[in-house]
Backbone:
């Protein structure tokens, strides 16, 4: 199944049906999300989301960390192209993929093709961690004297 993003990259509404958990392997907190919530964050049309209630526990871009319940995002770098590791990620249990190029995977793979996987990774990360940017308090210190003293104390 291939879904394509709608013109509005942030289209759709994310439901607040997630559970927070601690992943001891990655040593970080995450939230359990549904495939629907994360696909909507990419602007994927709701009709293009198979298995919308599928639980997603993490997002990875390294095939060594691929497993069941994660979204695998293919990143193209200066040396390596993540798309080359599609079969490895699939063999380790990943079934949901975000890519820029066509993939040759079995029929049970859910593939979302996007223009920019780096941007998709950022949007998915914000969604799976319940948009931490909305909880930050930002303070600006301006002026010509005393900024270093104020900021360091």
Residues:
């Amino acid at each position: 199944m291939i879904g394509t993003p709608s013109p509005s990259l942030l289209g759709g509404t994310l439901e607040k049906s997630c559970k927070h958990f601690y992943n001891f392997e990655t040593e970080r907190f995450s939230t359990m999300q549904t495939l629907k919530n994360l696909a909507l964050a990419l602007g994927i049309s709701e009709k293009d989301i198979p298995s919308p209630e599928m639980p997603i526990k993490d997002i990875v871009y390294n095939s060594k960390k691929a497993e069941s319940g994660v979204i695998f995002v293919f990143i193209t770098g200066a040396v390596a192209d993540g798309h080359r590791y599609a079969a490895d990620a699939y063999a380790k249990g990943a079934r949901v993929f975000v890519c820029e190029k066509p993939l040759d995977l079995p029929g049970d793979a859910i593939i979302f093709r996007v223009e920019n996987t780096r941007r998709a990774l950022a949007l998915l990360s914000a969604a799976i961690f319940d948009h931490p940017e909305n909880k930050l308090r930002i303070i600006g210190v301006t002026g010509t004297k005393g900024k270093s003293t104020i900021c360091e104390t």
